[in-house]
Structures are given as structure tokens and as C-alpha cells.
Amino acid sequence: MTTFYIIRHGQSEANAKGILQGSQIDTPLTELGRSQAQVTLSKLGTDNFDAIYASPLLRAAQTATIIGGSDKTITFDPRLKEYDYGTWDGEIEADIWQKYPQYFDEHHNLLPNSWVDSKGDTYLEVKSRLESFFDEVIARHPDDSVLVVSHGFTIKLILDYILNIGNLVNISEPTNAGITKVKITKDTKTVIYFNR
């Protein structure tokens, strides 16, 4: 059984400014984001992981380095990058919510088919990449503990891959530096906890 600790990156500069930040926007952690990663480190410890994987985007890479330690090997995998919001990447979130209300619920959860107007990723494209990632990591680490540092919407899609939820509005994005623990065998996928 492979145990995954899936962490959302700490607060980034774009998060702090209310900017929609997908795979095209690459901002560093804020001071608060670095502190959030330190708190997550204190919850997890550093010696618990046989492998560390992270999105290559700066905010996730910095979070992985804080939690994993600068002396640990971190494998940066582009399949863990944030969902691509297409032409919406880099825009003020509130402006996008107002301009395209048909793609958001009352809690500003992104609804399906936004890619029609944004020209960004489809859910299926991202979930296919994530399935490939998890298949490879499980084959490589069948009985290990693995730290994964990624992004809010991508983690929602990871949960959809694991639980086959289908309706992503039923899941909130994890908070910055939130921890989700998952155990996967060749026959089962179990969420132990979400967003602690």
C-alpha cells in the first residue's frame, strides 16, 4: 500500500492579491505562505517520506523544499502543475466570477465546461495526467510513504480520480498548505483525511 500525503502549496503572491493562478502564473510564496509550510512541516516531520514529488511551479517547489528539507531529493513532475485556466490565468478572480457567472456556483466553485470560454484544460485532460502520475509512483513505491505538493484545483481533481465523485462542486479546494492523506493499493483507493 502506498501512502500519499498530498499538500497544497502555501499562500502565494497571486493568492494574496486575488489573482486566478493556474499553470501559466508562477509566483513565489508570501511570508504567510512560508509560515504555513513550516506549520505543515511541524505536523508531518521530515523523516516520514520515502519519496517527494512536487509541481515544478515555484509556489509548490518552495513549499516542498520547506517541508521536505533542502537536503532531500525532490522530483518535480509537470503532471502535478495547477489546472490551466487558459485565458483566465492571471486575471482578478472577482472579475472572472462577474464576467462568467455561468461557470461558477454561489461559492465560486468552478463548474464544468469553463474551458469552452477560457480555452484552458478540461477535467478529463488533467485527470488523465494524474492517473498516469499515480500509476507510475505506486509502481515505483508500492509500500512507501510519499509526499506530493501540488495545487488547489489539481488536488480537487486528484480526489475526483480517487473517489470518482464526478461533481467537483461537492469538494472545496484545500486551504493553503492543507494536508490530505490517501492510501492506494492495486485494488483500493481510500481518503484517510482531507485538508487538515
Automatic annotation (TrEMBL):
It is an enzyme of class 5 (isomerase). Keywords: Glycolysis, Isomerase. It comes from the Bacteria. One of its GO terms (molecular function) is isomerase activity. The active site is at H9, E82. The keyword Isomerase applies. The keyword Isomerase applies. GO terms for cellular component: cytoplasm. Substrate binds at R8, H9, G10, Q11, S12, E13, A14, N15, R59, E82, Y83, D84, Y85. InterPro entries: His_Pase_superF_clade-1, His_PPase_superfam, PG/BPGM_mutase_AS, PGM_Phosphatase. Its EC number is 5.4.2.-. This is Phosphoglycerate mutase family protein. It comes from Ligilactobacillus salivarius DSM 20555 = ATCC 11741. The gene is gpmB-4.
